[in-house]
Amino acid sequence: xxxxxxxxxxxxxxxxxxxxxxxxxxxxxxxxxxxxxxxxxxxxxxxxxxxxxxxxxxxxxxxxxxxxxxxxxxxxxxxxxxxxxxxxxxxxxxxxxxxxxxxxxxxxxxxxxxxx
Amino acid sequence: xxxxxxxxxxxxxxxxxxxxxxxxxxxxxxxxxxxxxxxxxxxxxxxxxxxxxxxxxxxxxxxxxxxxxxxxxxxxxxxxxxxxxxxxxxxxxxxxxxxxxxxxxxxxxxxxxxx
Lengths: 116, 115
Hints:
The complex is a heterodimer of chains A (116) and B (115). Helix content of chain A is 0%, strand content 46%. Chain A is mainly beta and 116 residues long. In chain A, strands 2, 4, 5, 8, 9 and 10 form a six-stranded mixed sheet that branches. Chain B has 115 residues and is an all-beta fold. Chain B is 0% helix and 52% strand. Chain B has strands at residues 3-5, 10-14, 19-21, 24-26, 31-38, 44-50, 56-58, 64-68, 73-78, 87-95, 104-105, 109-114. In chain B, strands 2, 5, 6, 10, 11 and 12 form a six-stranded mixed sheet that branches. In chain B, strands 3-9-8-7 form a four-stranded antiparallel sheet, with no helix packed on it. Chain B is globular, with a radius of gyration of 14 Å. The mean pLDDT of chain B is 92. The chains are: A mainly beta (116), B mainly beta (115). The A-B interface holds A 4, 6, 33, 35, 41-43, 45, 48, 50, 56, 59, 91, 93, 99-102, 104-110, 112 and B 32, 34, 36, 41-46, 49, 51, 90, 94, 96, 99-108.
């Protein structure tokens, strides 16, 4: 498809397990972002990738969270030793021409993560 | 640091009436402002943006927004609301001084349009 694709759409796992969330950005988009959306909250920035530059990890809440982007395209967000407070919707977005300020971000439908 | 405030958690309006969803921002330089809409179980969809130029910006689905620099506001408006406009609306800002890397989002305003 032409949009940002995220998988899985839903993930239920037990506390303490590791999870991997995948994002396929729009083809040609060089910037990729991960956000977390908790119930009743706005979007919390997690991490940002721009081309081959070092990612901006300033939003990652703890060292249990990590992300990588392979080949400048697909990205994987990994949460190790999940906790109940990690339950949220994880949204991925991409944009064209890197972080050019006038470019809107295009969002996927998110992965709804539930930690039991 | 840049920030965005959406003072209303929820806005209720009757179908056919005009609607306004409020947004104020704080940045160190000139802002780039965006509105997004989120329908249930979906990601955010881009509605419109203000970069420079005319203070009244027109976007998708008949929405428009008015940039007011003196009041640091960017309120979303629509002349005649539809039931299908019911959704969660987010205002976002990007500060030229922040290096463009990320958007800062407000907490969102739920718009409910009654028939």
